[in-house]
Write a structure and sequence with these properties.
With 147 residues, the protein is mainly beta. The chain has a domain at 44-142: Immunoglobulins (Immunoglobulin-like, Sandwich), CATH 2.60.40.10. Helix content is 10%, strand content 45%. It is built from 1 helix and 9 strands; from the N terminus they run αβββββββββ. A 5-stranded mixed β-sheet has the order 2-9-8-4-6, with no helix packed on it. A 4-stranded antiparallel β-sheet has the order 1-3-7-5, with no helix packed on it. A hairpin with a 5-residue loop joins strand 8 and strand 9 (132-142). The longest helix has 14 residues, at 2-15. Mean pLDDT is 84; it is low at 22-32.
């Protein structure tokens, strides 16, 4: 009997917490982007979102710079740029792009071991809304003897 009383006392005590150890969050911290003029968000405005390399000889490396301007109302930070395969390598500004400033994302395509038409998407992840922007490079890779 003493064992049951002791178990009930422990169970009751463990359920009784005087205060919640987690901090109380103010609702003003949660905001929905794009709902009002008070929203200060960066915006990437690209000159072009796609580029056609045309004819590329197998083994050749070609690159293109996707120029953009931060036309938003806050500093822009690009956290990551992802490509669909190892043949496409992106390079992007690692720092802050201020409002009104321009920069570029360089996409390097290595045609080694590739033949035929190609279409590669490059996904830019930044502190914009929406946070993902897709760029595209296309072209046709010919063998050295075919050109």
């Amino acid at each position: 009997m003493k064992r049951w009383v002791w178990l009930l006392a422990v169970a009751w005590a463990s359920c009784q917490q005087a205060t919640d150890p987690r901090p109380t969050l103010d609702g003003s911290l949660v905001r929905n982007p794009g709902l009002g003029e008070e929203e200060l968000l960066p915006e990437m405005t690209f000159r072009k979102r796609s580029h056609d390399f045309g004819r590329v000889v197998e083994g050749e490396e070609v690159s293109y710079d996707f120029w953009f301007v931060n036309t938003g109302r806050a500093p822009l930070i690009i956290s990551e740029v992802q490509s669909g395969c190892g043949c496409t390598t992106p390079f992007w500004p690692k720092g802050v792009v201020k409002v009104g400033d321009s920069s570029y994302i360089r996409v390097l395509f290595n045609s080694k071991g590739q033949t035929g038409e190609f279409s590669k998407n490059i996904v830019v992840i930044a502190n914009t809304y929406p946070n993902k922007t897709t760029l595209k490079v296309t072209g046709i890779v010919y063998r050295k003897t075919d050109s």
